[in-house]
Write a structure and sequence with these properties.
Protein name: histidine kinase
Number of helices: 21
Organism: Undibacterium rivi
Oligomer: single chain
Mean pLDDT: 77
Low-confidence stretches: 129-162, 184-195, 207-221, 432-436, 607-612
Enzyme class: transferase
Structural class: alpha+beta
Catalytic activity: ATP + protein L-histidine = ADP + protein N-phospho-L-histidine
Strand order of the largest sheet: 16-8-9-19-18-17
EC number: 2.7.13.3
Strand content: 15-25%
């Protein structure tokens, strides 16, 4: 099994495990739309990887299940026990296929999709679902007794099977060597009955799970795959040790203001030396931990040329993929989290953005199009850009489509930049009929969800007839974030340094444009927004401004700036607060609220829309 298939199997197995948990939860709470969408995304992601690996049976099962959940989430089909059973059966089939691959079975030896499973999913989609017990024969219970001797016919398959399948050869292929009964010299007079699709599936599953199956042992791993959660914990501990050392240094500085005589003086000197050494070691631990997690994004980018080539061939388009900046290093957790978003973005560019050769020639373009995948480091962020030279986006068409689907009202998304962001809404798609590539309105939702989960932001720029560019900004390292500490209404907040350009002094009065206060900065008029007002704090006298680097730059007014600090971020898990991504502790031990990167880049619009 090659490296790409190994990574797909590990990631897909995790998704398949989560799918079963979500399905059981959905059975208890049929109206939970978040769970419905989570299951839908999981099957969509598995199907994309399976299609890339040419696993046709898995693609078929996932595609049918997608159709089922598309009907469930749009209300065309009710969430019934039969629908849940069909989805669980499909999840089990996908998990069995992945387990077989993980055990060393070559992809070409995997079983086909059982007819009974296909019928269950089809009936569930058409609201004709019946109980699994009635539709599919129950699997035989395993016993400890030895099996009865089996008489194997020597007749040809074509003479004994109406479906033309050589079941004898199939049985031999999946049965461990040395356990087959000796063939009988005289053929049995009666024609053996071909096993059902369910029996075929159970037979393959049983044989694959046998501890006696002898497969070629996979090559010895030179590296160890570590759970991302464990890596996060390790780095968090390293960050906390640095934070503790910083707090101790602050306390020691305050303590040194007092006069110590006698035996206390050498103790203070020893304490100072010890804390200095502890601070140095904690910093080295943090750097070493970061180094173990840093990897070039080229490890991820190398997976995409084949994907683009094969998908372009399927779509009948001529496309070149240009890759730049593959040597850019970033946290491994960030690298792993980028795979699904980039797959969806590339598939979206190929299906929606790139024209056919005939359409390009008619528009005075070259017949062969280009998709560019670039990466570079910018301050404490890594930038990932996916651009194409296709037909671009029609902002007005995006607005009309979103309004017709009931996703926005007629007064939303007035600017082109806001209209481009509509593609990230769940359920949004400009295609009338869903295909195996796109059209379900889930792909770009997956992209935005994945990027913001890692405290990143994504923006779109497009020019009709020229092409489209997606720009992702992610922190190079996840747990520790360089920030600027500010105050508003007595509260301490942290702004990611990736968005901070400079600090300016604010006057008592401002110019006004359309009722919005404006201040000229370096000759350009920038709108002034109150951080306290946007986040719901009491109005205060804010005389310090921070120029925010965003697609539409603006000035954020605060009471004061307390300096900069590298903070260990604790994500908010129990509540969701617009504009706030997590909490941290300052060197003095004070609780700090950390503002969201995407919130600042979007112009602090979330709270304003909610309070409007």
């Amino acid at each position: 099994m090659d490296d790409m298939l190994k990574e797909f199997v590990v990631e897909a197995l995790d998704l398949a495990t989560n799918v079963e948990e979500h399905l059981l939860s959905l059975e208890r709470n049929p109206g939970d739309m978040n769970t419905l969408n989570a299951v839908f995304r999981s099957f969509h992601t598995i199907k994309g990887g399976a299609g890339f690996m040419n696993l046709s049976a898995m693609v078929s099962a996932c595609h049918l299940t997608e159709n089922l959940f598309d009907a469930l989430r749009t209300g065309q089909v009710a969430v019934t026990p039969e629908a849940i059973e069909a989805a669980l059966e499909a999840s089990g089939f996908v998990a069995d296929q992945l387990t077989a691959l993980n055990n060393g079975i070559p992809p070409e030896q995997l079983s086909t999709m059982p007819k009974a499973l296909e019928a269950m999913l089809t009936d569930a989609i058409e609201s004709k679902g019946v109980s699994k017990k009635a539709a599919v024969p129950a699997a035989p219970q395993a016993t400890a007794t030895a099996p009865e001797p089996v008489a194997v016919s020597t007749s040809s398959p074509s003479a004994n099977n109406t479906d033309g399948v050589d079941w004898e050869a199939y049985y031999k292929a999946v049965t461990p060597v040395g356990t087959l009964p000796e063939p009988v010299a005289v053929a049995v007079a009666t024609t053996p009955k071909a096993p059902s699709a369910k029996e075929e599936h159970e037979a393959v599953k049983s044989s694959l799970s046998s501890t006696d199956v002898k497969h070629t042992a996979p090559a010895k791993e030179e590296s160890i795959r570590i759970d991302a959660v464990k890596l996060n914990v390790l780095l968090e501990v390293a960050g906390e040790s640095v934070q503790a050392a910083n707090q101790a240094a602050v306390l020691l500085e305050k303590l040194s203001q007092f006069k110590f005589d006698g035996q206390a003086a050498p103790l203070m000197a020893a304490l100072t030396e010890t804390l200095t050494r502890a601070s140095r070691y904690s910093t080295e631990l943090q750097r070493a931990t970061l180094a173990t997690r840093m990897q070039p994004v080229g490890r991820l980018f190398q997976k995409f040329p084949r994907l683009v080539r094969e998908l372009a061939r399927d779509l009948g388009k001529e496309v070149d993929l240009n890759i730049e900046g593959a040597e850019t290093e970033v946290d491994r957790v960030v690298v792993d989290s980028l795979y699904d978003p980039l797959v969806h973005m590339l598939r979206n560019a190929l299906d929606h953005g790139i024209e056919t050769a005939e359409e390009r020639l008619a528009s005075n373009k070259t017949a062969r199009s280009t998709i560019s995948l670039k990466a570079w480091q910018e301050a404490s962020s890594v930038m990932i850009e996916v651009s194409d030279d296709g037909k671009g986006m029609d902002a007005q068409r995006l607005r009309d489509k979103a309004i017709s689907k009931g996703l926005i009202n007629a007064h939303d998304a007035r600017t082109d930049d806001e209209a481009f962001q509509l593609v990230f809404l769940p359920g949004f798609s400009t295609k009338e009929v869903a295909s195996s590539v796109s059209g379900r309105g889930v792909g770009m939702d997956v992209v935005k969800t994945a990027v913001e989960r890692h405290r990143g932001a994504i923006r779109i720029s497009s020019e009709l007839g020229k092409g489209t560019t997606f720009l992702i900004r992610l922190p190079i390292e996840l747990s520790i974030v360089p920030t600027m500490l500010v105050r508003t209404d007595g509260a301490s907040l942290a702004l990611p340094m990736a968005t901070v350009q400079r600090v300016v002094e604010l006057p008592e009065t401002f110019e006004s444009v359309g009722g919005q206060p404006v201040l000229r900065d370096l000759g350009r008029p920038l709108p002034v927004k109150s951080l306290g007002k946007v986040l719901g704090y009491m109005p205060s006298s804010e005389r310090v401004g921070i120029v925010i680097a965003a697609p539409n730059p603006y000035i954020l007014s605060v009471d004061s700036v307390d300096g900069t600090a590298d903070l260990v971020i604790k994500p908010l898990t129990c509540i969701s607060t617009p504009g706030i991504t997590g909490t941290a502790r300052s060197a003095e031990g004070e609780l700090v609220l950390v503002t969201s990167l995407s919130f600042l880049i979007d112009g602090c619009k979330v709270r304003e829309m909610m309070t409007a």
